[in-house]
Every structure is written in C-alpha cells, then in structure tokens.
Records
---
Amino acid sequence: MNSLSTYLLISALLFSMGLLGILQRRNLIGMLISVELLLNAANLNFMAFNRFLAHDPVTGQVITLFVMGLAAAEAAIGLSIILALYRKMHSINIEAAQKMKG
Amino acid sequence: MVTFKVILPANDYMAVLPQIVLVSTALLVLMMGVFKKLVNASAPGFTALAGSLLALGCVLFVGHHGAPSSTFGGMVLVDGFSFFLSLVICIIIALTILVSLNYGNFFNCMRTGEYYSLLLMAGVGMIFMATAGNLILLFVALETMSISIYALTGFHKKQLKSSEAALKYFLLGAFGSAFLLYGFAFIYGATGSLDIIKIAGFIKTHPQMLNMKFLVAAFVLTIAGIGFKISMVPFHMWTPDTYEGAPTSVTGFMATGVKAAAFAALIRVILVPLAPMQHSWVTIMWIAAFLTMTVGNIIALVQDNIKRMLAYSSIAHAGYILLGFLAGTGLAQAGMLYYLMVYAFMNIGAFGVVALLCKKGEEYTSISDFAGLGFKYPLLGLVMSVFLFSLAGIPPTGGFMGKFYLFTQALRSGYVWLVVAAGVNSVISIYYYLRVVVVMYFSPQASENSIVLGSVSPGIVIALATAATAVLVMGIFPSYFFSLAGNSIFSLM
Amino acid sequence: MLAVYLPILYMIILALLFGAGTVFLSHLLGPARPFKVKTQSYECGIPSEGAHYAQTPVKFYVTALLFLVFDLECVFLYPWAVYYRRLGAFGLAEMLIFLLILVVSYVYVWKKGALEWD
C-alpha cells in the first residue's frame, strides 16, 4: 500500500487524465485545468521519488514548491490570454479560435 | 526528524553578471513604462537597448578562461558553452530590440515598457537555460522564457490573430513544459539527483541503469518536451500559426532565441549525461530529424504568407540541426552551435525586413507584396536576398558553411542516407527561398497595394546591416567562428 | 505506522468544526426576521426565469489573477523562514532582493490601475 509504485501509479493516472483532458476538451478553461493536472502529476512523482529513493532529503520538496509557483504564473498568463480572446470572440470554445489554419 | 546542514554556496556573481544586468534593466524599463510623466515615451526602448548592449559587453568582458567550473552550488555552469550561448543570445536580444524600435513606430502598443521588459526577461530565461547545471534551474528558466514569450505573442491587443497565436502557443507550450517536467521527475527517480554533473557521473558508474525503464521514460518525455520548443515534427503544430499571428519583431526573436536556448538545453540534458544511452535513441531521432526537415520544406513550398513560409523553414532548419545532434561527436556539436549562430543572424534579418515593411496598423506579409521591391529599394532587396540565400544554403553565405559542417560531421558518423535526404531537402528549399527573390526582382510591381517603406529609424538599418555583414563574414571566414564554437564544446562541463 | 498521520486527521476535524461552527454561530447570533415578501425568491417584478447565473464582470478575474500570483510567491518565503537563523545575513539579503522584485511588480500593477475597483 504505502510503496513507491502506488504513488507512481496515481501520478501516471493523473497525467493520463490531464492528457485526455487537453486532447478531448473543447472548453479553454477545462484545457487549462488539464495542464495543471499534468504539472501536479510531475509534482507527485518528485515527492514520491524524494520519499522513497533519493538520499538528498530536500530536493524533491523544493522543486515541488518551485513548480507550484510556476504553475500559478502559467495559470495567470493562460487566463489572461483566454480573457483577451474572449473579449474578441465572445466564446471560450477552442473551435472558435480557428482563424489561421494549416 | 532529519536535520539539514545549511551550506552557503561560494557564489561567483561575475558568472551571472549579464543576467543581473538584464533583470535590472527589465525592472527599470517596467517602471519607466508606468511613470510616463517622468520619462520620454521612447525612453524604455533605448534603455532596454542600452541594457542589452551592456549585458553583451559583460559577456565579452567576463569571457571564459581556464577550466570549466560550476558556481551557486552547481546551479550555474561556467564553461565555454555557457559563454558562447550567452553571447549568441545577447546578440539576439540586442538585434530584436533594434528591430522593435522601428516596428513600434507603426504599432503604438509595442512601444510600452512592458514589451521591452518582457523581451529582456525572456532573454534572461534563455541565458539561464544555456548555463543551467541543475534541472530545477533549467525548468524555471524555460518557464521564465516561455511565459514572457506567450505574453509577447499576444501583444497586438487589437488583432484577433495575435491572441489566437498566443493561445495556441500557450496551450501547446504548457503541454510541452509539463512533459519535460515529468521527464525530469523520472531522471530524478532513476539517478537520485537533479544536478547535471552528478547525473552524468551516476550513469557512468552504474552502466546497468541504462536499461532501466525510468531512464527510457525520462528520455522520451524530455525529448518530447524540448521537441515542442524546437518545433520538432510531430510537435510542430503550433509553429506556423504562432509565427504568423505574433508581432513580426517577436517572431524573429522566437524563431532564433527560443531555438538556441532549447538546443542548448538539449545538448546539456541529453547529449552530455545520457550519451551512453545513444544506441537506444538513434532510430527515434533519425526518424524525427528526417520528418522534421521534410515536412517543413514540403509545406513551405505552398505558402503564400512570408511569415508562414519562414515558420515552416524554421521547422526544416531544426531538422538540419538535429543532424548534428544525431552525429553526437564534439565537432558535430560545434557545427550545431555554429549553425545556431548563423541562423540567429539570417532569421532575425529576414524577419527584420518583413517587420520593416509596414504602415500604420498593417503589415505586408504576402509574398506577392514583395513584387518589385528589389528595384524600388535596391539596398533592402539586396540584404533580403543575402538572408534568403543564406537560409537556402547557397555560398558564400554563413548558411552554406553551417550546413556544410553539419552534413560532413553526420557523414563521418555514418548517417549517409539521412545526409542524402538533407541534401535533397536543401535543394527543394532553394525553390521557395528563391521564389521570393524572383518576385522581388523579376515581377512587375502591382499598381494597387504597392509596398511603401514607412519611416526607417537608424536602429533597424544598423540591425539589418549587422546581420547581413555577419552572415557574409561567417560564410567567407568561417574558421574563426567554427573554432570558437569548437572551443566552447570542448570546454563543456 | 498510521499514527503519524493523526495530526492531519485532527487538522481536518478542526477545520470542519471551525467551518460548521461559524455558519452555525452566524445563524444563532444573526438577527432573522422573515416575512412573506422577504422569503420570496424574487423581490419585485415578474418571477425570475432563464439561467440563474450571470456573467461575472472582468474585474473579478483581474483581481483573482493578481491574487493568485502574489499569493503564491509566499511559497518561497516558507523555506527561508524555517531556516532563517542559519541562513543569516546572506539569506536575508537574497530574500530582500526577491521581495524588491515583487515590490516593483506591485508598483507596476498599482500604477497601471489594476487595483482600482471602478
């Protein structure tokens, strides 16, 4: 139960959910949430490896903090882009953003 | 309860002096942008230019002498590789600012402090990507660069195309970053460290690790993550749309700076520590390199928008550079660096010419708009031809020498068929580059929608002249630059 | 083995109790004088119809975005605070530089007018 593979499995599940979300969702906010899931899956991996394998006790935890900060910055810029697009298209559906093709 | 020993690192602040200069300038420029009453409207741009030149001076002043070392507890590597890439990236930033100063005359929203501040911040991220000795720093630097560039891409606030480009770049870029991070997690799990030197050492002393699933997963995910940034096929979908929609000055910056930084990261993370794994990646990378140059070149043939054409051409160029990655030898890596440098000059030059041709709120980006340009503005036609010849790889330009180095090194490593494919691709690419030259010189100027040169500031003249001269000099006297690149590779940590 | 996680359980219980407690207390202490018109779902005009949600004004998003970014910067203060004494003057200087950069961006946001509600 309390083993490395459990955590890796959960993180892989989280990663797949995020992947599926990005590929299949049409709502931009949903896609943004899926990206966050991907980052959190990586975070979980770092914590698990840190807990079970690594000799250095802090690295995994510190990188998790960094990734949290970066994820927030990424969410902020993503939301601003979506907002800018919404002001022009009045939609947050990805299908609407198809002016350029090819 | 584990207790930690706090070791304060002996820091060599000189090693990050260019970055410190760039960050300080970025903050200063940001403040100048909001305190409008105190400063002139054009002050942010010129301050940013001064800052980038100062950073360039710092890179040259600090230089690199002696043995490679690391500082900040292994976070920053001080070696010839860092020096070379910092130099290239500082040049890219300075040239981009020169191009932007003129571009801002046509688009008022591009003259603000934010624009230059973001540009400098992206530059800091790029430099840190090239100098990082630790995967945490590498990832933070990658995000610093990417987040700034997402915002820059969407900077034409009134144009739907620009926001759309930003959205596409953001979604796929964030996707790629997440892959990269997941890959780093597996590297950490397999080797127990995030320090690139320690990872390399661990893999050397534990050869049985190489078949470990973690490391294979790590490799695939890392390649996918960096592949998004260098627009490697099949991760290239965002490239044409983003390049077309982004402000032209930003497109040039994206095409050169991001590529240089991402290839640097590729060499640092994959080629050096994971070199013993080479046998397992050769096939994948062979296919990726082949597809990258072929898809890029074939689709570029049918483009009518010059920004889209250059976007597909940049995909193709990523494919050529991947040849050096496959060959993997020291000289091949030197060829990659040489190519990145030439590529920076010729691509910023080509996008600079496109950025020059605009009037208030409008740009001429269709290839037919270039009709008769060669006679109407002979000098402009001449420099554009130099850049296009270099992109096509026609002597005596730097682009030719770059391809020459990459192809010979790949041949020496035994990739005969791939080099043949690359040669065929280069021939195909001549068609679409020369098409622009032909339109410029041999097709009559359309009476309506004739191209007019807006105001030309001295900045862009300097930028284009520098880029064109550099392209020619690198083509005629390549050995100096090649040995510079070679030295930087051989003093790689 | 699982006993290590007991504090987390206490924490969860405490959080639930606090949340429920405040809601209950506000019911208990707050004045409530219901009458017929007041308890109707809509106070005037015709009964409401259609979707019951309205678009949120953009200013909420801007505020939320700013909160998100500035709030998460605190994450970097915690490790420093934990080892404050051992990091000494060096740590303090580094953190001051970090905060200085944050202050610059704060001044930017302020001067840009993103903090004005109207």
---
Amino acid sequence: MITIAIAKGRMQDDALALLGRAGIRLNTEEVNSRKLAVTDETGDYRFLFVKPADVPVYVEHGIADCGMVGRDVLLESEADLLLPLDLGIARCRIVVAAADPEVMTRAVGMLRVATKYSQIARAHFGARGMPVEIITLSGSVELAPALGLADLIVDLVQSGRTLRENGLTVVDEITESTGRLVVNRASYQLKAEAVARLVNALRAALNGA
Amino acid sequence: MRYYIGAEARLRRTIEDAAMSVFESWSYEEVITPSVDYYDLFEQGMGQTEAQRGFRFTDSDGRLLALRPDVTSSVARIAATLLADRPRPLRFCYAAPVFRQQPQSHAEWRRENTQLGCELIGTGGKNADLEVLRLAAEILSRLDLQYCITINNVDIFNGIASELNFDTPAREQLRRLIDTRETDELNQFLRHYSANDGRAFAQLAQLTGKRNVLEAARSVIRNDRSLAALNALEELWNEIEALGLQDDFEIDLGDVPSLDYYTGLTLKIFVHGAGASVGRGGRYDGLTGNFGRAEPAVGFVLNLDALTEVVGRRKAK
C-alpha cells in the first residue's frame, strides 16, 4: 500500500476527480468526515488530507510516499522531491501586482513587497538585482498596498478578479503553477512497482482527458 | 545536534562495529583524519559548491579552516602524497563525523553525521566496483536491513550531454530535470534538439529497473561514450546476477548526482524505513589527480545516524 498526501482546499476536488478517472475511488462520506486517513475502495492507496504547505514535508520525510500539491507550494518549500508528473489541475499564475504600475520604475531605494511566498519573491527580485523588503503575510495579501503596508504584492492569480476588485494590476508574471505529483526519493526505489502503477494510471487519465 | 544515551548509544556503537568488522574482513585498514583542516583541501577534493556547505572559520594567521565536510578528500590527499610509494591498491575505511550546513526546513536536518565509509584506491574496472558494492550489501544484510542499492554510470549522461554540445548552465538544468524526473519539462526542454540522443534523455529519467533497463537504453542511445558506459554497467550487472544479488540491486539511469567528481559508477543506498537515501558513493578517478597523482578510486559512505534511527525504530516495534 502506498500513502498519498493531498493538499486540502483549492486543489482537493480536482485531485480527487483526476484520481477517479485513473480508477482510484474514494468514499465521499469518508473524505468529508474528519478522518485523518482514508483508504480507497481497493485498499491499495491510503490518503492523507493536509494543508498544502505540509504536503512536501510529509513526502520528503517519507511519511507519505507521494503527494499532490501545487507548484507554487513546492517552489516555496524547496523540498528535495521527485516530480514525475504535471497534473494540469488548479492552474494559476504567480504574479507581481501593484496599485500603481509606475512604482517599479519610479521608485528609488527600497520597494516593499507583501506576500505569502517569501522564497519565490526573494528569488525573483534577487535575480533582477532589485533591492526589496519582503513582508510575509499569511492571507489577504491584496489588501496590503491599499492599506499602505507595501508597494507591491507577489501572489497567486486565477481569474484576476480579486486583484481588479482591489485596484491592483499585474506588472510582471513570475511563473505558472499547476498541481504536481511528487514522490519521495526512497519510495520511488523501494516501492518502485506501486509508484510506477500510480504514475502510469494518472498519465493515462491525463492523456485520455 | 543529537544526543545518544544508554541503549541508543550502545545500538549505534553495535552498528558501527558491525560495519567496521565487515570492512576489516575485506582487508580495509582504518584511517583517522583530522576533523579540522585547511578549507583548500576540501575545495580541491569536493569542488567548490559542496565544500562551501562546510563550516568555515579562520585560523589566528587568517587562513581559512573548515570542519571536515567529508573524509574522502583527506584520504585522497594522503594516498597521493604521504602514501604515494605504497604498493597499490590501497584499502581504507573509517567511521567519522562530518559536518555540513543544512537548510533549516529540509528532511535531512543533521549538520553532523557519522559516515561509515571505505575507499579503494589504485585499481579500476569492474572488479573494484563490484568489491565495494558487495561490501555495502554485506554490511546491510549483516544489519538485517531490507535494502535496495541503485547503480548507474555517469558517462551515460555525459556522453549524451557532450553529443548535444550543452554549455554548463544548460547541462546543469538538464541534470536537475532528470534528477527530479520532471518528464514533461524535460520533453519541453529537449524539443529543440532533434538528434536521437536528445530524445534518449527524456527516457533516461524514467529508466529504473533490472536488466530490461539496459536494453531499453541501448535502443535509444547512439553515441560511443554512452554506449561504452552502458556496456560497463551491463558487465557489472552480470556479476551482480551471478552472485544472486539482483533482488537487492536496481539500475537507475535517472540517478545523476550533483557531485561533479564522479567519473563512472555511482550508487545510492536505500533501506526500508528511511525516507531518504542512507548512503551513496561511486567512482572518482579524477580526485587523487587534484593532489598530484591521478589513479582510479572508488568508495561509498553509509550514514550511521540514519541507520541507527531505522534499526532503533525496528527494535521498538
């Protein structure tokens, strides 16, 4: 049996739907209950539902053999994992946005950047040689410019509505993010057959879609 | 920053003794190297990127010192200098702590871990490679661990990379994509390379298994360097099968280690119960040359602290 950690929230439904198409079905009632671990109908897979940022942690330590989580989370965690499959779900962009797009060129000295993704933001501005102060928030990042906490934000964008509603425009796109299948390095060798079966089933489901 | 007390310390000692007695039975001599040495030594031995993960500080005269991040560098140096006149091959083993900086969040959190390791210097070829593989297997089965040793030959990757004329950054990006098995990105990256070998790369990332891997690789690889490496790997695999060890070994063409100094065989050691590899090694024929006397060398290390954790957890059950 292999254990798969799934990021709760935004990605969970898409991930379960994809697994369903790959022939791995879970009891909906059990998923919605508060149980920590749920086993699929065949008993071949055990699922853990954890916060997105915790998925790479569980997988890197080998508590879960595999995980399904967004690339944004992986970039932020810098965990050492195998990434054999792009699941193509929960597609979104990681962008730099500002209330006043001119701020990027006009500002002298240091820009303040509010974000949930401090690693990604630091790497992005670092690569461009722009001195920035990173302010780490845990939510509602789009409020920061309006309230005067920051000049810029780095955040996930799906439709762009939240940004528009808060009077923000995208000034730069850092990267795109989709859900990924991640695999623990040891499990990839020690449970090679089971992992390969999962990867192939998911790949077939993706190609069939 | 880990304490071992009483029973745990005894268990750790038992594992260390087991490994050292296996080394000794294969005529490996123990070597004890300084835990503090000039930083230059490690940079020459491991390359800059790896050596910089060591803890560095200055001596009273301003020269840069380091807590040893590996033992291999020191052993390679004495082989090339102090012991230059000794008859070959040299067989050395050690049980010694090494020190490396670790990013805070990662699963490998130990800044200090004890390496159980060996070096076989002055002899190349299949028999030397096989000797260290058998040693590793013997230690792991002596500890009653269920294990899997993956083997590869770096020249399979190098042959294809030089065929495609990659510059260093492109080569490193490619290596990373193979290492993390990002098949989709790999295909993207290689789209512009129409050569046969370009497509071969995308497949390498997925090739892990037994003898069938060799055949699959041979059907997509065309260049001589990679084919020679593939043949060497096959010869080694024949020996592994002849010894009846094939269930515990695996060929993994996607294992392309970040250390630039491997020149042939590479290996990684996994055991059930550990979420990360517990050992690694390979052939580094270029290493002793950095200290003035080039000769073939092969070796591996096991992480004593990781092994203790696995064995300890098994006992607790």
